[in-house]
Backbone:
């Protein structure tokens, strides 16, 4: 039963992360300001918290799940999946820093809105995150079917 619960939680958190990343992409648009920046900050904080939860649940699956840790730790496809997740994490730092900076500026000046150039840069990074993120279920599906063993 534990394996089932961990699998369900893992899938739900991964889907949540994808949703939050998509929400950020929708919210980061020219003219975003005020309440939009606050919502964006909340989405980004949720994104970070969800990513942390994914790590906890995912590694719980590795060490407490039915397949056993050897199934994962000896599989290069598992490590490719982990690498893709790590790259997404690294890529997410830049938008997070920009969003924090924007929110700080908006607190000092309620009329603040990031420039179109800044918005464009953050949107490009979010799109790159989504593209790398798409590799994660590809690797997961391959691993679940025994590739890499």
Residues:
């Amino acid at each position: 039963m534990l394996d089932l619960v961990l699998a369900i939680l893992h899938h739900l958190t991964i889907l949540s992360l994808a949703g939050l990343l998509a929400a950020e992409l929708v919210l980061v648009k020219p003219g975003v300001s005020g309440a939009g920046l606050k919502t964006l900050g909340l989405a980004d904080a949720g994104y970070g918290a969800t990513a942390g939860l994914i790590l906890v649940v995912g590694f719980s699956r590795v060490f407490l799940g039915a397949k056993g840790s050897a199934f994962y730790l000896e599989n290069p496809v598992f490590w490719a999946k982990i690498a893709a997740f790590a790259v997404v994490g690294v890529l997410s730092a830049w938008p997070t820093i920009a969003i924090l900076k924007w929110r700080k500026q908006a607190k000092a000046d309620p009329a603040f809105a990031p420039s179109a150039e800044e918005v464009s840069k953050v949107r490009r990074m979010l799109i790159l995150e989504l593209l790398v993120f798409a590799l994660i279920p590809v690797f997961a599906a391959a691993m679940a079917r025994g590739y890499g063993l």
